[in-house]
Every structure is written in structure tokens, then in C-alpha cells.
Write a structure and sequence with these properties.
Blueprint (H helix, E strand, L loop, with lengths): L1 H30 L4 H13 L4 H11 L4 H28 L28 H13 L7 H17 L5 H21 L1 H5 L9
Helix pairs in contact: 2-6, 3-4, 4-5, 4-7, 5-6, 5-7, 6-7
Length: 201
């Protein structure tokens, strides 16, 4: 009987080990792939996404226009807040996955950004970028494709620049989607609410 109970646990451990091995293999494949035309652009994109600067800049631009754009901006900022707090205050502290190893003799050091001191899992940059895109899209459907592509590019840039494993980025995207759902459910009704007007007869 104890052996039967241990088997599912062992299978889960084997699965997690295999996924971690695949994750590292994908990361190593990116690190040794020569892409000189992309290195500078992705390094700059990754840096620009620090502290959600891209999302906040987009929100500031949208907020200049009343109505749906301003509503989308508020939803996007709320989603970024939920995603960032969850990733940094919960996810990274619970998992504490070490950052990828970057060899001193890396063949492409020009693509790297400074290695953060925080844990690797999940990717906070990806979580925030996806959260913003997913929260803005329902209010502004026309922005869904460009913001979605931008979020994907930010996520990949974190792997390309050597600070995250692909699995960290996938987890960040899932977290960002959930954060957007929370923001839409919690903040959306507040923005839609309008006080009833009293008319005197």
C-alpha cells in the first residue's frame, strides 16, 4: 500500500525534473544562437520594460482621451499592479528559483542586461506586460494585437538577454492573464458605475 501511494509522488517529481531539464535546454539553445540583428533591439526592449515603463507610458497616452481609452488605461494600470505584486511579493518568494547561469565567456555578451537580484520564477516583466495587454483589450479591441505582440516580445526578450528561463516567462504570462481577470472583475464595475441622478418634480 505505501508503494502505491509513493508512485504518484515519484511520477510528479519525475515530471517536474523533466520539465526543468527541457526548460534549461531551451534556454541554452537561445544563448548559443547567433542573432546579431535582434540583440540590440531586444536588449533595449527588455530595459525599457523595467518597472513597467512601457505599459505606464501607453496608459498615460490613453488617459489623454476620455471614454473608452481612459477606462482602458485605468484597467491596464490596475492589472499591472496586481500582476507585479503577485509576481514579486508572492511568486518569487515562494519558489525562489535561481536565475540562469551566464558564463563569463558567453559568445554574445552584448545582448545581456544586468542580472536582477530577485528570484527567477515567475517573470515579472512578462506578467505585467501580459496583464496590461489583457486588461486593455476588452475596452479597446483594436489594441489587442499590437499590445499582445509587444507583451510576447517583452517575454522573449527576458530569455534572449539571459535573465529568465522560458518557463519563467510562461508562468509570468499565465499570472498576467489572471491579474487582468482580477482587475476587470474588481475595477471594471467600479468604472462602469454611475451615481443615480435625482430629479425634482
Amino acid at each position: 500500500m505505501p508503494d502505491r501511494q509513493q508512485r504518484p509522488c515519484l511520477r510528479r517529481q519525475d515530471l517536474m525534473r523533466d520539465l526543468a531539464t527541457l526548460d534549461r535546454a531551451l534556454y541554452e539553445t537561445v544563448t548559443v544562437t547567433r542573432t546579431p540583428a535582434l540583440d540590440t533591439a531586444l536588449r533595449r526592449l527588455s530595459t525599457a520594460a523595467d518597472h513597467s515603463k512601457i505599459s505606464f507610458a501607453a496608459a498615460a497616452l490613453l488617459a489623454l482621451f476620455p471614454g473608452r481609452p481612459r477606462r482602458a488605461a485605468l484597467l491596464g494600470v490596475a492589472a499591472v499592479g496586481v500582476a507585479s505584486a503577485t509576481a514579486n511579493l508572492v511568486g518569487k518568494r515562494l519558489v525562489r528559483r535561481p536565475r540562469p547561469h551566464r558564463a563569463a565567456d558567453s559568445p554574445f555578451p552584448g545582448r545581456h542586461v544586468p542580472m536582477p537580484q530577485s528570484a527567477s520564477f515567475p517573470s515579472g516583466h512578462t506578467a505585467s506586460a501580459v496583464a496590461f495587454a489583457a486588461a486593455v483589450s476588452p475596452a479597446l479591441p483594436g489594441a489587442s494585437v499590437p499590445l499582445g505582440l509587444l507583451a510576447c516580445a517583452v517575454g522573449y526578450s527576458r530569455v534572449h538577454t539571459g535573465v529568465h528561463y522560458p518557463g519563467d516567462v510562461v508562468a509570468g504570462a499565465v499570472l498576467g492573464t489572471g491579474a487582468a481577470a482580477v482587475a476587470l472583475a474588481a475595477v471594471g464595475p467600479v468604472l462602469d458605475w454611475q451615481p443615480c441622478r435625482r430629479y425634482r418634480h
